Amino acid sequence: MNVLREILGVALAAAPWLLLGLFVSGLIRAFVDDAILQRWVGGEGALSIGRAAVIGAPLPLCSCGAIPTALTLHRSGAGRGPTTAFLIGTPGIGVDSLAITYALLGPFMMFARALGAVLTAVVTGLLVAMGTRGTPAPASSSGGRSACCANGCSPEAREQGHQASVPAVPMQPLATRRLREGMRYAFGDLLEDIGPWLLGGLVMAGVLIALLPPQMLSTYGSGPVAMLLMALVGIPLYICAAAATPIAAGMLLAGVSPGTALVFLLAGPITSAATLGLLRREFNNMGLVWYLGGIVASTIAIGMATDAVISLTALDVAAQADTARELLPAWLEAVALTVLLWLGSRPLRQWLRHHLSSARAT
After folding, report:
1. Which residue has the higher pLDDT, 284 or 151?
2. How far apart are CA 150 and CA 144, in angstroms?
C-alpha cells in the first residue's frame, strides 16, 4: 500500500504539468516548419552546432522520433556536428519534460536539466565535428529510415501517411487546421508513445521512494563512480525525457545526490540503441566513439558541477520539489490525472464507442 500511495502521489503531482507541456508541444508541432529547421541547423561551424542544440531542445521528440528528422537535416547539408547536437538536444529535454521536472524536482533542477542538455549537445557536437574532420562519409542508404522506425512507426511517418490519404479541406483556415493537427499529435501519438514509459517510471519512482532507505543511497549514490554508472546505464536505454523524470525524483527522495540523478536525466533520454546504430552508419566508428565519449564526459562534469553548486549555496532541492508540488490544489491534480488517463487509453475509448454504437443499433 505504501508503494501504491507513493506512485499515486507522484502521478498526481506530475499530471497538470504534463498536460501543460503536451499542449505547448502541440503548438510547437503545429507552427514550427521543417524548412526553418533546415535553414538554421545547416552548416558545419560552432554557431550551427549551438543553434542546433538550442532549436532542438523544445521540440517534442524522443530519441527514436528525432532520428528521421536529424537524418533529413544531415542529408540536406547539415554537418556532423550540428546533426549530433540536434540528435542530443531534441530528446534530452522538451517542454513536456521541463514542466514535469518543475513539478517533481523543483525550479533549480529544471534549470540545471535544461542547461545541462544544451551543454551536452554543444560539447558532443563539437567533439564529433573535430574528431571526424576529414573522415569520408559512408554510403547512405536511400530509405532514410532508422532501425526503430523501419515499419513507419514514428509519429511523423504516421502523420505523413494520414495527410497523404486524406484530402485537404480548403475552407478550413490554415492556422486552425495546423492547430488541430498539432493537438492531435500531442494528445494522441506523443502521449501514446511516452505513456507506457511514463507509467513504468512512475512505478519505479514509487518503489524507490517507498522501499529504499535514504541512508544507503546517500552513501553510495554520489561522486564520479556513481555518476559514471548512471551514464553507462542510461545511454543504452530507450526512455523518453518525461518518463525519466519520476525515476530521477524517486532516486532523489531515496538519497541519491541531485548531480547523480541529473546524470541519469541527461544520459537516459539522449540516446538509445537505435541512435547508436544510426551514428555508426552515418558517422563511422570514430564518430560513434566521440559521440559516446562526449556524452559520458559532459554529463558527469555537469553532475559534479551541480552537486558543487548545491553544496556551496546550501540549496535544499527536496524542499524546492515539495514547494512546487504544493502550488496546485488537489482537485486540479485529480482532474488532470483523470484527463490524462482518459486521453492515454485510446483502445478503451474505441472499445466503448464500438459497444455503444452496437447497443444503439440493436
Report:
1. 284
2. 9
Give me the residues paired with residue 43 across strands.
Answer: 78
Q: Quick: pLDDT tens for 112-135.
A: 999 999 999 999 999 988 887 766
Averaged pLDDT of the chain:
76
Q: Which amino acid is at 19?
A: L
pLDDT band at 244 (very low <50, low <70, confident <90, very high): confident
Question: First vs last Cα of the chain: how many Å apart?
Answer: 44
Judge whether 38 and 76 are in contact, CB under 8 Å.
yes
**Residue partners of 358: CB distance under 8 A and separation at least 6:** none
CA distance 230 to 158: 34
Whether 208 and 247 have beta carbons less than 8 Å apart is answered as yes
* 310 φ/ψ angles, rounded to the nearest 5 degrees: -65, -40
The whole-angstrom separation of Cα 136 and Cα 95 is 36
Nearest in space to 146 (alpha carbons), one of 63, 52, 53, 86: 63
Q: pLDDT by residue (tens digit) across 221-233?
A: 678 888 998 888 7
Q: Which residues of 207-244 are buried (b: 16+ CB within 10 A; e: fewer)?
A: bbbbebeeeebeeebbeeebbbebbeebbebbbbbbbb
Q: CB within 8 A of 47, min separation 6: which ones? A: none
- Count the helices and strands in the chain (H runs, E runs): 18, 0
What does 293-361 look like in DSSP terms, one character per residue?
Answer: HHHHHHHHHHHHHHHHHHHHHT--HHHHHHHHHTSS-HHHHHHHHHHHHHHT-HHHHHHHHHHHHHHHH
| Contact between residue 57 and residue 92 where contact means Cβ atoms under 8 Å apart | yes
Q: Would you state the pLDDT for residue 301? A: 95
What tens digit of pLDDT does each residue of 177-216 get?
Answer: 888 888 888 788 777 776 776 677 667 766 766 665 545 5
Cell of 180: 488541430
C-alpha cell at 199: 507509467
Whether this model's pTM surpasses 0.85: no
Planar angle of CA 102, 315, 303, nearest 5 degrees: 70
